[in-house]
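User: ok so my PI wants both of these folded by tonight, can you help

Assistant: No problem, let's get them done. Here's the first:
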Amino acid sequence: MSWTIRRDIGGFPTRWSDTHAKQWLDAGYWRHETLVDIARQQTERDPAKTLLIENGKSLSRGDVYSSALRLANYLLQRGARPGDVIAFQLPNWSESAIIALAARMAGLVVNPVPPIYREAELRYMLGATGARFLFIPGVFRQFDYPRMVAKLRSDLPRLEDVIVVRGDSANTTRWEDALSCEPAVDLPEVDPAAAFMVMFTSGTTGRAKGVIQTHYSFGYKARQMAQAWGVSGHDVIFMPSPVTHITGAIWAFDIPWITGAPAVLLDVWKVEEGIDAIREYGCTISGGATPFLQQLLAATSDDRSALASLRTFFCGGTSVSPELIKRVSREFPNCLFFRAYGSTEMMTVTLGISSAQQADLGAETDGIVLPPMQVKLLDDDGVEITEEGVEGEILAFGPEQFAGYLDTRDNTAAFDSDNFFKMGDLGQWSNGNYLVITGRKKDIIIRSGENISPKEVEDVLMEHPAIADVAIVAMPSATTGEMGCAFVIPNQGCAFDMNEMRSFLETAGLARQKYPEWLELVGDFPRVPSGKVRKDVLRKKAADIAEQHSKKVTT
């Protein structure tokens, strides 16, 4: 089937197939609409209904829709044109949902940037997208964002306006001033096939890849998830995942509009505050990476009634143990807990389970593959595996599929000849169309749901004069799922320790999330005959170190 690269109104290179576009449109998976159409209808129907709850404050549909119209007008008056990029580096604040809606009103493309990122990441991402507008906090978690951005302005010639949310700074625009415009009246016509979002994800190349999602793909996935899990206006969503990640973005930006279920947001994850929010607002649906679930379980050991309102909790983003899902299912029998599997490129390949009768499958598999999603497993020779219990590389295809990478060179190795996306993971079939993730081909670390490229950190550390060679692998962690373990070969006569490594990475401007949390000095690495480092051996060694350390702590 012929797939081509076509440039949308903003010049973004989107992968396209006329044949599949027609199939998905005819089937109703893709719709000739954007979230703006849904938001307008829902606001007209019931403007007072609560849409978002954050920090004890509720925002109605009317509040968010009106604010988005004002912000859209500000952006248009400042010269924004359909296809321009607006970036936001915000925590889970309600303003991010207003920005996302305003962008769609004006036909703009959003680039969410995690608040943990610093100069190196921001310079690269904003430069790659050519962002014209940037929304940042004033000071958040004791970090001065305007000061950081001021240092970067000369490196970002296309960046025109910096808007400070919940703060103020010289040479920037206050959020309140941006919203002082009259609501936009004449909005541009928006092509749903155009890019709506560019979200960066780390891979094995060391360079973060810009994932392009269209209005079609993003809207379809939000509708499908809501339908599969029966989300309605009777539900209340508790979403701890960052809105700058794909899961948080879907559940904070789209699903409240689509279903009528308000979303409760926390800007700083603290398990006690999460429990209070679930109890106060009667939250019924939640999800997130393993650490969220682990902490909720531990913090409610004396009072299981604290989470009594929950009916559904989906878990993914990092390795999820069957034992954890089984345990929480026993402790909270009225809530359906299950594993789900996806990525920034393919948002949910599997959709967990749908009933308590499938509880074992929710723990022992990563969920069911439902049409129109197609998944195939390939062996090392590229032959498809159909029998259960046989491991193969996972490839996926469907209407939620991203429209390709910002750098089209990254597309070359990402798809097979049938346009199936190579997930980079290994898995096997179970119980018919249930998928079990067994390992990873991509050499990434997933720490608290955040993808970290070892090569990116290795490349920085290799500039240190005391290091002859470095290899970073995933080490199991009880609190974050995985963490980075750095195996370092020091140069002869040179000293190197954890403090020095952290100081060096901080000076390089890397996000703290990416710092390895374990350092192991070695004389050499295990290698294949060609000289390539055997990271599989190092991962096993890191796992052994973690196990030994855990035993020491418990004794």
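One down. Here's the second:
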Amino acid sequence: MVARSSNKNAVAFWFLLEIICLVLVFWLTHGNSPPDVNEAHYLTKAKHYWNPAFCPDDFFLSSADAHLVFYWVCGWLTLFFDLETVAWVGRAFSWVLLASSLVSIGQRVCFEKLAGLFVGGAFVILTEVCHLAGEWVVGGFEAKTIAYGLAFWGIRFAMDARWRGVWLLTGTAAAFHVLAGGWIVFCLIVFRIVSIKLKGPRPTGKELVGLVVGGLVALGGLIPGLLLSSGDAEIAAEANRLYVHVRLPHHLVITTFAVERWALFSSLTGGTLLLWINTGKWRCDGQRVIVGIGLVSVIVAIAGIVITISLGNDSTLQHSLLRFYFYRTSDTLVPLAASLLAGLVVFRVAEETGKGWRLSASILLLMLGLYVGDRIKERHADPRPRGDVLTLPSSKKTDPEQRRANTLRIHRHWRLACLWMKNNTPHDAIAITPLRQQTFKWYSHRGEVVTRKDMPQDAKSLLQWHERRESVYPFVGGRRGLSRLDDDYLLASCRHYGADYLVLTQFSESSRNRFADDVRIEKVFPPAGRFSYYAVYKLKD
């Protein structure tokens, strides 16, 4: 009894240690200050849901709410904490949930210390390097980060044939994010049906109860999604077209994907197949589950390719089908299968050759060391929040340190302009903001006429979003941007959409003197005699 207790304690110790180490990897590689890529989008929406006085007239925040379960479970935190704190709390929870599931999956197959850390680390690397459609799992806090953590725990339960728990966990994942979680539910259902047909046994009553209850829970994500559709067929069709071919072709339309993405993902899929063929002597039911659902996800991706090519880009049916993200699940499940099989090879070969820890730990340290080191170097070169890295201008200086310093200066000026808006304007103020930014609401707590990132989910609002975007940021000389528009056009846009403020870039002498003699508008930031890369203008009555 003492030996068994000691063994259990050792297993628990290594399980917790590997989770901590994997969360540390997440933090070192994805721990930029908030907001991350989608945090400004999701968390401002959640804050507005619980406090409608937050940016009350913002077009996007006032549109229909698609992720009600996420808002209900997590959004209330915005009533008590600032957005940055909520982001960090959500990241910590999501990372622990995901890390624990990956470590458990790795340990379940490899039965070795550090196997979970290896599988989790390899998974994160492969999702970032070999994705096809841009899907990511580890990053900022949003609905899908919780959904993936729950879904991966569901996959872990499937490896032990604990199917009642599978359906409860994955149903909850689908409630948080109907597509991220829902596609994994679909893959598991297909795998389960095939397994029953091939070798049984038939589902038990407990499993059926779990399936029904999980399905009911999943309605929390499905019903709000269904309510977003318009009853008008023409409006719905146009909304689908805009969603697929205007806003998100880089995620949804395979013919727009870079050749590099095709090559890397195809290589990963082929490599996974070769690993599966050559690990026959080490196979177990747990591996079959991971590889099986990965295969289903590839079939789903192939279906997306067939739909895209066979129907053509002018097909309304193609538009309505491609909204369902046919490639996001293969972007996660194929890397998961590859990571698990790679871990199996490393730890089994180390065991059979007598190398033990020396080989497996060396490979693990090399893999994570190169990855973490590269990301730390990247973060040092540009430590801005990821939501700003991808959208705000960066310095063009050739010297790395000067480029870093000037980039941070541009970012500081952006935040100061937003802070001026927060401290000096009414809470219901509306502004027209630069085209390529997505964090104005996050920093300023003030509304915007329209942004590229903040696309509404309901059909009618999506059409209005497109009309606003085309009107506020029209093409001039083949490019968009407020600096390309004349003064009269800008002021007319402000009055048309009820914007009292205009936020503009000032990267040239002419832009810094814009509206200098125009009595219709007043520069209120920066103060006279101070330099800033951004200016705030207030329209006069």
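Residues 1-5 have pLDDT under 50 and may be disordered. The chain has 22 helices and five strands. Good luck tonight!
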